[in-house]
Amino acid sequence: MNVLVIGANGQIGKFVVEQLVQEGKHKVTAMIRKPEQADALKELGADVVIGDLEGSVEDLAEAMKDHNAIVFTAGSGGSTGQDKTLLIDLDGAVKTMEAAEQQGISRYILVSAYGADQREKWSESIKPYYVAKHYADRVLFASDLNYTIIRPGGLKNEPGTGKIAVGTDLEPGSIPREDVARVIVASLQEEKTYRMAFDLIAGEHPVEDALGKL
């Protein structure tokens, strides 16, 4: 597969690029917004394309040309305002879905947030973030894309263990970013994840085993 990683300069995105390159099964392209981010990703072994989530659907579709799988790991980040949350986490995500459909790309993996599907679980302090994730998820559900929606718990920067828990009604928990990336990479061709949405936290089961039981 030719995989385009959107948000490749982010913490999860870099792990996804690195793991895909190391695995060697797929051709990897990193989509970035700033040209100065290119060298580090090229050093990991990825091709690079420039794309702006605040740009047009047509421009995003052009960036996706010659790919057949999309991984969306982008986010506005905690230091921006609610306007950027709407523009990146919601509208930016939806535009990439529309662009993928324009290009005839079916496989699409979206990194959402734990509890995004259940309003009663939303934290008051970052409620706009959950709103953005919730409605981006809903647009993807309604699309014709072969989606996987991954809703990780609290994200940690410690080394991954390769052991996870997945499901639709997990207790709150956390997970290393490295393991979120492992789940993304493993999900690309794991049919049990097709047209599925699930919560993800650290657990007791190897990634492949856990996904295979969905």
TrEMBL record:
Specify the NAD(P)-binding domain's residue ranges: 7-190
Top-level taxon of the source organism = Bacteria
Identify the Gene3D superfamilies for this entry: NAD(P)-binding Rossmann-like Domain
- Pfam families membership: NAD_binding_10
Protein's recorded name: Uncharacterized protein YbjT (DUF2867 family)
